[in-house]
Amino acid sequence: MTYTDPQIPPTERVIEVRERNTTGWVVAGIVAIVAVIAVTFMLTQRSSETTQDELLQAQEQGRAVGVIEGAQSSVASSAQQAQFAAENAARNASAAADEARRETERAAANASQAAQDAADRVAASGDTAPSVDAPPASSPQ
Q: What integer pLDDT is reported at residue 2 of this predicted model?
């Protein structure tokens, strides 16, 4: 049960009558008409079937692009192979130079040892080697 105080005057209800506002419907109608016109325009302006010449031209363009991409790939691959070959040649040249240096050192050591052995044999035999400062013997004329 609700308690109603007899001293409080009853509240009045105010009902507001609105006028009809059609602005929203008018805007929606205009948007719908524009959409219908746009769809109609797009359907009527479709391009006709592509011609045989256009298809051939598109195929040729595709082939040209393929050839260009293949050539670019081939150039890149060739450049990489050339780089590898150059690096390999540099390594081989370095190894050959090292081997030549070692061979030269061995030959110099062998020549030095041979000279030392010859000097030791001469000293052991007691023979005197001809002096470098002595004049050469004259040949009979």
A: 67
